[in-house]
Amino acid sequence: MASTLDTDLWFRRLSEAPPDAPRLVCFPHAGGSASWYQPFARHFEGRAELVAVQYPGRQDRRSEPLIDDIRALAGQIAPLLTRDRPLHLFGHSMGAMIAFEVALRHEPDHLFVSGRRAPQLVRDDRVHQRDDAGLIAEVRGLAGTNARVFDDEELVRMVLPAIRADYRAAETYRYRPGPALRCPLTALTGDADPKASVDEVGRWRERTTGDFTLKVFSGGHFFLSDNRSAVASFVSGESPSA
User: Fold this and answer.
1) What residues contact 56, with CB distance under 8 A and at least 6 apart?
2) Measuring CA to CA, which of 115, 137, 141, 178 is 20 to 30 A from 156?
3) Catalytic-labelled residue, pool 110, 221, 236, 239
4) Is 167 a residue whose pLDDT tops 60?
């Protein structure tokens, strides 16, 4: 049984909802933290209990060792999930892969994946092997991190190790063929995402025997930031208990 200490370490509750509303557990992108989902909280208030995952090695967990393996992260998170209300998982980019691996271990009532090609599609990406300047250029180009962070040398030293470890985790992950999920699976993407085409995101349909939905929003890799209200409405509408 998961201890309160463990759940408090990994999860940050961002919004409240009635007992019969789903718990939406959100997994951040590479270099991201639980606080990245904070702006979504007001859009989910009353619709879902929004819970964001805090990975080790950042913010209030900065003193802990980084984990640069998707399955290792999923293996630590899955046993902490409870079923006292409908359980929905939502992951963006690298977070989509962690959410998927968690779902394989603790199948939710609904899995939402965002901004990530289906796991069986492999690219030989090696951003994690670039020097610091190359890594910063990649992150700046995707516009997922406040650009001012990279103007502060001390902040750069603080965040770069987590970004590099996360990119290593995402880029070295390889899907292992196995039984498909049975739960509904919804994939979201931006129509101009340079990291995941609409066709690549659509291939998530192969990972479940349940209902599959593909939703395309306007925007790039971080289309979520420009469509918070619309994304929340869509995700809440997709939720069977909403």
Assistant:
1) 64, 65, 66, 67
2) 115
3) 221
4) yes
Distance between CA atoms of 107 and 104, rounded to whole angstroms?
A: 6
Catalytic (active site) residue 63 = no
Distance separating alpha carbons of residues 153 and 139, to the nearest angstrom? 16
Q: Give residue 240's pLDDT.
A: 42
Supply 54's token pair: 């805090």
Residue 221 known to be catalytic: yes
Tell me the Ramachandran region of residue 220: left when phi exceeds 0, alpha when psi lies from -120 to 50, beta otherwise.
beta
Residue 81 confidence (pLDDT) above 70:
yes
**Which phi and psi (to 5°) does residue 199 adopt?**
-65, -40
Q: Could you tell me how many residues make up the chain?
A: 242
Pairing outcome for strands 11-13 and 49-53: antiparallel
Least confident of 72-76, 147-151, 170-174, 201-205: 147-151
- Other CB atoms within 10 Å distance of the CB of residue 189: 28
Q: For residue range 104-150, what is the model confidence (pLDDT) as tens digits?
A: 999 999 999 999 999 999 887 776 777 777 778 777 766 655 555 55
Are the C-beta atoms of residues 19 and 239 closer than 8 Å to each other?
Answer: no
Residue 234's pLDDT is 96
Q: Please report the pLDDT score of residue 107 as a whole number.
A: 97
Distance CA 34, CA 27 (A): 8
33, 93, 114, 239: the active-site residue: 93
What global pTM score does this model have? 0.91
Element (H, E) at 140: helix 132-142
